[in-house]
Amino acid sequence: MEKELEIIKVALDSKVVEKIYDDGLSGTTSQIGRLGEDLVKTARLLLFPIQILGSLQDRLERILIRIKHKIPEDKIKQADPKIIGPSLENLKYIQEDDVLFEAFINLITKSMNEDEYRNVHPAFPRLLEQLSSDEAILLYELKNMEFNVVDTMDYDRSLNQFHNRKLISSEIPSEKLEFPEHMETYYSHLESLGLVSWPVFKQIPINSNGIQTGITRYSKWLSTPFGKIFSQVCIPDEEYIISYLQKKSQ
Questions:
Q1: What are the residue boundaries of the structural domains of the chain, listed by start?
Q2: What integer is the mean pLDDT of 77-85?
Q3: What are the CA-CA distances from residue 81 to residues 57, 100, 106, 120, 125 (Å)?
Q4: CA distance linking residue 183 with residue 188, whole number of Å
Q5: Origin, by domain of life (predicted)?
Q6: With the C-alpha atoms ordered 240, 243, 249, 250, is the resulting torsion angle positive or negative?
Q7: I need a labelling partner for 224 at 20 to 30 A (CA). Which of 57, 88, 189, 212 fits?
Q8: How far apart are CA 194 and CA 42, in angstroms?
Q9: What residues are paired with 220 via a beta bridge?
C-alpha cells in the first residue's frame, strides 16, 4: 500500500493524497480509511494503463529498431522536431500491438526518409493522435477503393422533407471494425478532419401513382486528396493490416 500511495503522489501531485498518506501510514492506525481506499482504487484504474505501457525510454530501443528496418541507410535524414516531438509523445501511451503505434512509426520513418519526407505535413501527428483504431482501418481500406452505399428515404410532401433513411446496400467493411455501431460517428469525425467525404452521385425518385413518395440515393465514401496523402504516409500496409486483424479476431 505504501508503494502504491507513493506512485499516486508522484502521478497526481495531490495534497489530498499526501494528507491521506500521512494520516494513514504515519499515524497510530495501520488503516488508511475508506476515503484512502477509494482513492487508491481509483488511482489504480487511472494509472494501470500507464504502468503497463511503461515510459518512452523503456521502449525507445524497440522503436529505433523498427524505424531502422524501414529506412535504407543511405536515405536517413535529420528528424524534423515538429514531427518527431509529438509522435514520440504519443508513442508513450499507445500499446505496441495497436495499429496506431505502427502508424506513428510510419510517420516518423517517412519524415526521416530522404525520398519521402516531402509528403509529410506538420499537421499529421495531431491528426493521427485523434484517430481511433477503427478509423485507421477505414482509412486503410479507402487507400485502394471507395465504399459504395445505396439507401432510400421517404418523402413527406406536407413538410417538403425526406426522412426515414433505410440502408439498402453498403460496401463499408464493418466486419473488420471493433465497434461497427459507431460507423456514423467515425464518418463525421474523419470528415471533420478533412480526410474523407461522402458525396451522393445519383438520386432516383420513388413514385407511386405518379406522385413522389421517396428517393433512392447512390453515394460513396472516399478519401479526400489530403486524406490520400495522409494515408500514404501514416496508415500501415496490407501485410501489417492482415496480421493485425487476424490477431484481433483471435
A1: 2-53, 56-129, 143-227
A2: 90
A3: 18, 20, 16, 12, 11
A4: 9
A5: Bacteria
A6: negative
A7: 88
A8: 37
A9: 148
